[in-house]
């Protein structure tokens, strides 16, 4: 089973510890090494990137490290890839073209 790491119990995203392919089943692990839940991957994502641990509605905060890091620019389903194509950063202003092109 592929592994993803959840930084804080308040998080709604986890970080991939290896490359993930659509259909993979992941084991979400807390810092205590306790298993939080299992999530089926909906889209391929590279190691170090984020996966949604729950359905996130447009306008809801993306939470990592227990703090908001961005806002969903569209709905994100459980197991989907979370990146700039569906999140607006709360930490830095990004050019609009980056969001449209999915950079």
Descriptive overview:
The protein is mainly beta and 103 residues long. The chain has one helix at residues 96-101; strands spanning 2-5, 13-16, 25-29, 35-40, 50-52, 61-64, 67-72, 81-82, 87-89. The protein has one domain: Archaeosine Trna-guanine Transglycosylase, Chain: A, domain 4 (Roll). The protein contains 1 helix and 9 strands, in the order βββββββββα. The strands form 2 sheets. A 6-stranded mixed beta sheet has the order 4-3-1-2-5-8, with no helix packed on it. Strands 6-7-9 form a 3-stranded antiparallel beta sheet, with no helix packed on it. The mean pLDDT is 90.
What is the annotated CATH architecture?
Roll
Q: What is the gyration radius calculated from CA atoms?
A: 13 Å
Secondary structure category: mainly beta
Q: In what range is the share of β-strand residues?
A: 35-45%
**Biggest β-sheet: strands ordered side by side in the sheet:** 4-3-1-2-5-8
Indicate how many domains the architecture comprises.
1
Distance between the termini: 29 Å
Concise account of the structure shown:
The longest helix is centred in the C-terminal third of the chain and has 6 residues, at 96-101. It is built from one helix and nine strands; from the N terminus they run βββββββββα. Helix content is 6%, strand content 36%.
């Amino acid at each position: 089973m592929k592994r993803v790491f959840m930084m804080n119990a308040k998080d709604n995203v986890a970080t991939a510890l290896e490359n993930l392919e659509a259909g993979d089943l992941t084991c979400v692990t807390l810092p205590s090494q306790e298993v939080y839940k299992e999530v089926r991957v909906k889209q391929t994502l590279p190691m170090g990137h984020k996966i949604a641990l729950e359905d996130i509605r447009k306008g809801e905060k993306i939470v990592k490290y227990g703090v908001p890091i961005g806002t969903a620019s569209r709905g994100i389903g459980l197991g989907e890839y979370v990146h700039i194509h569906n999140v607006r950063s709360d930490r830095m202003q990004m050019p609009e073209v980056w969001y449209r092109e999915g950079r």
